[in-house]
Amino acid sequence: MNLILIPIILPIVSALALLLISERTRYLKELLAICASVVSLLAAANIFLLPAQTVSYAWLGSAISFTLSTDTLSAFLLLAAGLFSAAISIYSFSMPNKGPAKWFFFNLLMTQAFASGAALADNMVAMLFFWEGLLVFLYTFIALSQTTYAAKRTAMKAFLINGATDICLLVGITITGYIAGTMSMSEISHNKLTLDYGWSVFAYVLLLIGAVSKAGAFPFHTWIPDAATDSSASFMAFVPAAIDKLLGIYFLARASIYLFVLNGTMQLVLMTLGAVTILVAVMMALVQKDYKRLLSYHAVSQTGYMILGIGTLNPIGIAGGLFHMINHATYKSCLFMTSGSVERQAGTTDLSKLGGLFRAMPVTGLCFIIAAAAISGIAPLNGFFSKELVYKGTLDTGYTIFFLAAELGSFLTLASFLKLGHSVFFGVRPENLKETKEAPFSMLLPMLGLAAICVVFGFGAQLPINWFISPSLEALNIRHGILTGFHPDKLYFLSVIVILAAVINHLLGLAAGGGKADKASDHIHYAPVLKEAYAMAERRVFDIYEVGMDRVVPAFSYALFKVDRFFDWVIDTAPSGAAGFLGNTSRRFHTGSYPLYMALTLAGAIIYILLLASNGGLK
Amino acid sequence: MDKGLLAYLLIPLLSAVIIPFAARTRPKMADILANVTLLAGLANLLWLALRPSMIAGGFADIPGDGLSLLLVAAVYLVGLCVTFFSAYFIEEGLPNRPAYYSLLLVSVAAMTGVVTTTDFFTLYVFIEVLAVTSFALITTDDSSAGIEGALKYFFLTFPASVLIIVGIAILMMTLGSLSYENLRLFMASDAPAGPVTFASALIMLGFIVKSGVVPFHTWTPDAYQGAYAPVSAHLAGIVTKISGVYAIIKLATLLRFFDGRAQALSEMLMFLGMLSIAVGALAALKQTNFKRMLAFSSISQIGYIVLAAGLGTPLAIMGAVFHLINHATFKTVLFLNSASLEKSTGTTDMDKLGGMEHSMPWTSWTSIVALLSTAGVPPLSGFWSKLLIILALWESGLRVYAVLALLFSIVTLAYFMMMQKKVFFGKKTPASERVQEVSAPLLAPVVLMSAIIVALGLLFPYFYAYVKVVAERIIL
Lengths: 619, 476
Prior knowledge:
The complex is a heterodimer.
Chain A: H1 6-20, H2 28-49, E1 54-59, E2 64-69, H3 72-91, H4 101-120, H5 124-143, H6 149-180, H7 185-190, E3 193-194, H8 198-215, H9 223-230, H10 233-259, E4 260-261, H11 264-286, H12 291-311, H13 315-346, H14 362-375, H15 382-397, H16 400-425, H17 441-459, H18 462-475, H19 490-512, H20 522-525, H21 530-538, H22 544-589, H23 594-614
Parallel strand pairs in A: 3-4
Antiparallel strand pairs in A: 1-2
Helix pairs in contact in A: 1-2, 1-4, 2-3, 2-4, 3-4, 3-10, 3-13, 3-17, 3-18, 4-5, 4-10, 5-6, 6-8, 6-9, 8-10, 9-12, 10-12, 10-13, 11-12, 11-16, 12-13, 12-15, 12-16, 13-14, 13-15, 13-17, 13-18, 14-16, 14-17, 15-16, 15-17, 16-19
Chain B: H1 6-22, H2 28-50, H3 52-56, H4 67-89, H5 97-116, H6 120-138, H7 144-175, H8 180-188, H9 195-211, H10 219-226, H11 229-254, H12 263-285, H13 290-311, H14 314-345, H15 356-359, H16 361-375, H17 381-395, H18 399-423, H19 440-458, H20 460-475
C-alpha cells in the first residue's frame, strides 16, 4: 500500500475497530487511538520528508480521477493535522469531560482521516468528499460530547452553518471546474482563472465563503463560542482551534493564490473581512466571563490575521498568514488544553470562581503564560513573528487602516489575556480551591510539547520558515525574498507600545473593577455606546443563525406547512372527499328496487342501440 | 366445436347424471364423485398444457386456439376449488346435496361448452344452460336473500337473452351463417358492414348485460350477496366471466377492433368498461358487507377486461385474457374467505367484525395476497395483467383511459385495505370473540389459489409466452 494512504486509511480502520471494543475495557480504546494517531503522525512526517509524489485512481468509472498529491503545502498540512491529533489523543487519555471514550476517539480519528484526505486531495471533487465527511463528524463530535440538549442544539447549529457554507463550496467548485475544464487544482494552477467575468467572480466568492466558514471567520463563527460551553475542551482544542483553521486557511490560500488571480477589489474584500473578524471577535472575547468561551472568541479573532495576511496577496503577507495558521493552532490548542486541565482540577471554568491557581498548577500555568504571550504577539515567541509578517504585508499594500485595525486587535487580545491569566492563575485563591492539584502527566505532556513548539518557533523562527513556510509558498508558485530575521525596527517598538498600553489598560480596569481581575474589562464592557452594542450581542442580534432561526425559519416553515397542507388537501382530502361522496351516492342508488334496476337496464340498452345506430353501426 | 376438448364437456355431464343415483343412500358419494371428476379433468389439462416439452417449445403445439384450453383449465380449477370447499362447508343435513353437485357439474360442462364452441347458436344454448344452473345454485340454502338474488339475476339478465337471440337472427339473415369463422372472414373483407355489425352489437349488448357491466350491473350485488356462500365464489369467480366477458373478448377479436372495424362499437365498449371501473370501485368504497363489496369489486375488475377488449389490440387482448384468469383466482380466494368468515362468525358485516388476523391467520394472509393482486401490486399476477392493459391503452394514445385505469387501481387498493383493516386488523369485536380458524380442508383451496397468484406473478415470462401464442392465434 502506498505510504500516502496510511494517514487516511489507518485512522478510519482504527476508528471502526474502536466501535467493536467493549465498553467495559479500560484504557484499551485510548491506547488504540493514541497508537493510531501517533503512527499516522510518523507516516505524515515520513511523507513530508520524501519528495512530492502523486497517487491517482479512477473514480466513478473514469469520470473523476481521485488524485492525492503531497506537494509541500499539503504535506505540511498533513503533518500538522497528525501532530494535533496525536497531541489531543494523548491529552484526552485521562480527560473525563470528553464524553464516551469510544465515540470521542472515533470522532477524533475520523476527523483526522478526513482532514488528511482533504489536505492531500488534488482533485477538487475528492477534496469536497473529504471536506463534507468532516461535516458529519463535526456534528457527531459535538452532539456526543455531552448528553445535554444544549449539545445537540449546538451540534445542529454547527452542522447547519457549515452545511450551508459547504453547499456554497460545492457550487463554487462545480462552477470553477466547469470554467477551468478540469477538477484538478494543479492543472488549474498552470492556467489560473481571472476575475474578469461574472461567473468566475461568483465561483471565487463561493469558494471564499466555504473556506472562511471552515476557518471560523465572521460571520460564520457563531457556533464556536456555543460549542465552547456545550462541548469538551478536547474537542475545542482539536477541531475549532486546529483542524478547522488549518483546512480553512489552506483552502483559502489555494483558492486565492493557486487557482485564481485576484484583483484589487477582491483583495480589499479579503482584508476587510480579516480586519472585521479580528475586531468583532476580540471585542466579544474581552468581555467573556468564561475561560473556554473567551478562548473560543480568540480562535475566531486570530483567523482574521490569517485572512488579512493572505488578503495582502504579497509573499510576506501570505507567509505571515500561513505561519500564523500553524502558530495559532499550536498556542490555541495549548490554551484550550490548559482550560481543560483547569476544568478537570478545579471543576469550573467560570472566571469569577477561579483564581490563584498558579501555585497549585505550576506546569499548566507556565504553559498558559507561554501560549498567552504567543497569542498576544509578545516577542520573541512564535505569534510575534507571524503577526510581524502579517503587519509588514499589510503595510506593503498601502492600506494603513488595516494595519491599525490589526494593532488594535493585538492590544485587545493582550488586554483580555491579562484579564484571563490574572483571574485564573493569580490573585486570591477561593476557599473551595485550596485542595486543587496539578493535572495528570498525560495532560501535561502534550501541553508542554505545544508550549515548547511556541518557544522554538519563536526563538528559532527561521526553522519553521525554512522548513515549512518557504516550501509552502513554493508549492503555491510564489517567489519570495528573505522572510526571517529579527528586526528591531518601528514595528517592534510599536509592539512594545501596544504591550505597555494593554498593561496600563489592565491596571485601569482593575482599579475600576475594585481589584477583581474578572471585572478588569468592565470599563470597556459598560462604556457608553459599547454597552448597548454588547447588550445586543448578548441577545444574539448579530448572530445570523439565531436571527434566522428566530425570525426567518418559523415564517418559512409556516409557509411550507401551509403549502404542504394544500398539497395534502389536493392529493388526500379532496380526492377522498370526492370518492366518498360518489361512493355514498352510488351506494344510496343501489336500493335493491327491482323496477329501478329494470328501468336502468332497459334505458341503458336503448341508449346503447340508439348511439350505435346514429354513430354508423348500421352503415 | 373444438372436438379435442369435447371430453371435458361430456364427462362432467355424465358425472352429473350419475351423482343422484350413486348418492341416493350415501350422500357423501356426491362429494367424492364431483371432486374426482374435476380433479381428473384438471390433471389431464395440466398435462396437456404444462408438460415440459410444451413449455420448452414455447407452447407452439397447443391444440386449438389456446384460449379455449386456458379457459377450460380455469373453469376446472375454480370448479374444483368450489366443490372441494363445499364438501366440507355444506351442513350434514342439507337435503339437496346431490342436486347441488349435479348442478355444479352441469354448470362446469356448460362453461366448457361456451369456451369450446365455434358458432353463435351453440354459444347461446350453453349460455342459457349456464344461466339456468346458476339460478338454481343461488337458491341452494333456500334463504329469502338467495331467492331474491336468483330472481333478480333471472329477470334482469333475461333482456340479454332476448338481445342475443335477436342479434343471432339478424346475423343469420344477413350473413347466412352463424359460425365464428364466417363472421371473421366477413369482417376481414371490404364488404360494407351495416346489419352484420349491428347484429354483432346486439349480441355484444346481450353479453355486456350478462357480464354485469355498468349500467347493466344491478343484478350482481344482490345475486352475489344473496347466493349460497360457495356459490358466490363460483358465480363471481368464473360463471359470469365465462357467460359474459369471454364472449365479449371473442367478439372483439372477431370484429377486428384492432384494425379499426366497428369503430363506434369499440369506443362504446371502452367507455362502458371505464364506467364500470369507476362506478364499481366507488361503490365498493362505501359498502359495509364483505360479499357486497366483493360484488362491486367484481364489477370494477370486469371493467378492466371490457376496456381492454374494447381496445382490441393484441397487447390489450393479452391483458384482458390474463386479467380474466387472474380475476378467477383472486376473486375465488376472496369469496371463499368470506364464506369461511361467515361459517366461523355467522356474519359478513364488516362493521361487526374486527381483529380476525389472530384467530384466523390463514384466512387473513390469503386475503392480503388476493387483494394485493387485485389492486395490481407487483410481483403478484394482478400487477402484470393491469400493466399489460394500461400499457396497451397508453400505446394506443388513450392516455386519459390509461391514467384513469391507474388511478382507480389505487381506489381498489383503498377499499380493500379498508376491508382488511376493518375485518382482520384492529381490536376484536364481540362477534369476533372465541372464533377459530376454519379447518384445513376449507383452507386448502384458498391456499392453492394464493399460491397460483404468486406463482403466476413470479413465472410471468412463461405465462406471457403462452398468452402471446393465444393472442397470435385468435387475432391473426
